[in-house]
Amino acid sequence: MKEPTFEPVGLHHYRIRRTEIPGMRVDVEVYATEGILAAIRADKTYAQIVNVASMPDVSDPVHLMPDAHFGYGFPIGAVAAFSAEDGWVSPGGVGADINCGVRLMATRIPAAELDEKNRRALAEDIYRTVPSGLGVGGDVRLTGKSLDRVLERGAAAVVERGYGDAADLARIEDGGGLAGADADAVSAAAKKRGETQCGTMGAGNHFLEVQRVDTVFDGHLAGSWGIGDGMLAVMIHSGSRGLGYQVSDEFWKMSRKMLPQFGITVADAQLSPLPVRSDPGKAYLAAMRAAANYAFANRQVLMHLVRTVLENFFGGTSATLGLRLVYDVAHNIAKEESYAARSTVAPGIRKLLVHRKGATRAFDGQPVIIPGDMGTASYLLVGTAESEKSYSTVCHGAGRVLSRTAAKNRVNVSRLLVDLRARGIEVRGGSKGGIAEEAPEAYKDIEQVVDAVCANGLARRVARLRPVCVIKG
Amino acid sequence: MTYRFTDHTADYGVEIHAFTAEEAFCDAARAMYEILFGHAAAELFRRGGAGLTTKLSLQEKTLADLLHAWLSWHLDRHTQDRRAASGWRIRVFFRESRLEGEVYLQSVDELGIRPETEIKAVTYHDLRAFYSLEKTQLHYIVDV
């Protein structure tokens, strides 16, 4: 595919017009600084978003967030919507890790209490307590009805078992449980993989960080969410684990095989969609929501484990230490939402199925959590009314800029760990290779990513957080 | 060895060039085990031919889909049964997109090898299979 023209339409905002590439049905809105645009052009992310913009019945426009990079099927950082009533759902557009997402917990523990010795001890305690890495199971065993309850009710099902409290649920996207989930739509193979993985972090780019609130941009809002300048916070990034991968894999295969029946073509087999009205489409949505609920429960248990560590380490209770969930939000998901139709011929409200692949929902006033890399910073933003133009969506992180292979070849892990320790960051991880792949230089500059989002009015800065203890899978 | 890893921003791509379809499919699986187990994959293949013998028969519409099915079968054995293939004897009927043969599966716990990278799935993105009487070229991407 030839490189399309990125037409500048505003500060950190470009457009690929539908007339640029044959087959495109809608425009692509690209939110990027000049530096980020260069990365998008270098790794040909544009080819994948053009394929998405060429899908049948896709709503106008599709969006590419500033953390975008090359993926498979949908690029990472892609947002596309289809009619929720008679459109399509693309299992490949959600990705393998259904409801991979992030949660942030505030504390009233001053970061100054953590000297180097304490930092090491705290990192060790969390690393020992929170199951992480490949093939590592957790203490929560879910079988039969107990697993079905998690699949259909999400975080509430594990709160009832003592992992956290009911107040947490109000601070999770959709209360930690998506309606329309059906445990019967999840295969036995997927359920088997989910029996021992609830409350495990996993590997890859999943992480758990103790962070220090470094800068507060909106004191009123930060305060109302329990975030205080100079205090510690905890960020958790994980998803639906093997259960979600299994659900995705099964439906990818199904949608690929069924595509010829629907009389449509897609530029990339990975994009193969299912009609939302069809039985397979309904089954996918029911299974995807069940896997999403498992992910909410997973992060709830992980947070509970960290709460326990902090209570023991600092000597207090959740209440006295201010261990309060700020928010939990998904960034690999398809959600039914209503938006004003752009059409002047048929104005009104349209129910859309918004696909977010490596992209975060950002409703007006909603906390938006944007993790950076292990050496720089993460951001807490707030969604705006203006974000409706991007289907109320912003980026999901810094976004990779180096391939895993390149990062492994370039990064000297021993030197990196020494350097990070000198900067007050303690890292624990399952493997040196895993740490190398996730090194700071493998990611884009989070400041540029957040600049692009805020300049376009999609969100506003609330606080910046710096890593203190980093636990990698 | 007829495979090499191709650069991909977030995941792993594998390109295979071989004389025969059998050789290409074997190396496609070997490459995936190398991603999974790193250097420990060598320990797995050193046991070649040992373990539980499982008969396998796969039929798809295209050779690319057959490659996907072959790799997914191995990944499923690993994720669902904690087994990995130490060897195999297969025949690929590339005109019919059919694979027949037997695979020797070993318990990864008994072998004492641990995965280094979590493979979430074999993707359909940029899944390619080119074949002729002289050569077979394959390409696939796994989500990690």
- Average predicted confidence as pLDDT of chain A: 96
CATH fold title of chain B = Archease, Possible Chaperone, Chain: A, domain 1
**Number of DSSP helical runs of chain A:** 16
Computed structural class of chain A: alpha+beta
- How is the main sheet of chain A built? 8 strands, mixed
Q: Averaging pLDDT over every residue of chain B, what do you get?
A: 93
Cα gyration radius of chain A (Å): 21 Å
Quaternary state reads heterodimer
Uncertain regions spanning at least 5 consecutive residues of chain B? none
Q: Could you name the ranges of chain A where pLDDT drops below 50 across 5 or more consecutive residues? A: none
Name of the CATH homologous superfamily of chain B? Archease domain
Strand content of chain B: 35-45%
Any descriptors?
heterodimer, A: 473 residues, alpha+beta, eight-stranded mixed beta sheet, seven-stranded mixed beta sheet, 16 helices, 19 strands, B: 144 residues, Archease, Possible Chaperone, Chain: A, domain 1, five-stranded antiparallel beta sheet, three-stranded antiparallel beta sheet, 4 helices, 32% helix, globular
Written account of the structure:
The complex is a heterodimer of chains A (473) and B (144). With 473 residues, chain A is an alpha+beta fold. Chain A is 34% helix and 26% strand. Chain A contains 16 helices and 19 strands. In chain A, a hairpin with a 7-residue loop joins strand 15 (367-370) and strand 16 (378-383). In chain A, helix 4 (116-129) packs across helix 11 (279-314). The radius of gyration of chain A is 21 Å and the shape is globular. Chain A starts with 6 loop residues before the first strand and ends with a strand. Chain B is α+β, with helices and mostly antiparallel strands. Chain B has one domain (3-143): Archease domain (Archease, Possible Chaperone, Chain: A, domain 1, 3-Layer(bab) Sandwich), CATH 3.55.10.10. Chain B is built from four helices and eight strands, in the order E-E-H-H-E-H-E-E-H-E-E-E. In chain B, strands 1, 2, 6, 7 and 8 form a five-stranded antiparallel sheet that branches. Chain B has a three-stranded antiparallel sheet with strand order 3-5-4. Chain B is globular, with a radius of gyration of 14 Å. The model of chain B has no long low-confidence stretch (mean pLDDT 93).
